[in-house]
């Protein structure tokens, strides 16, 4: 009898909790294709997981796309420009410690991306700062800097 009573209370509480919640149309930044966070994750996913040079080029400014294209492949760009090599299957996350992304009024912003993966059997963790410019209302990758927390 007590178990049924507790079950009934639990089910009622869950129902009331879900019935009273507001529906939110807010999409997380990393899931909204118009945000710098999404574009940063899509860019590195194209480089490391999809090996898709054209997709990476489409997410970069013209000048940065020229640099990427000059290396001929995603692997060449990652090795020589980013100095960051991974085997396929890299996990990508946005670092929100600085909360530096401002997209409303600004023409530039930056996003920190955390990388976790393997290279030749060794685990590799790294962080890069991706700098964006707003061109014709769309965010494009202008530059990729090193770890902003690294000692220099």
Automatic annotation (TrEMBL):
Keywords: Signal. Residues 1-19 form the signal peptide. It comes from the Bacteria. This is DUF4878 domain-containing protein.
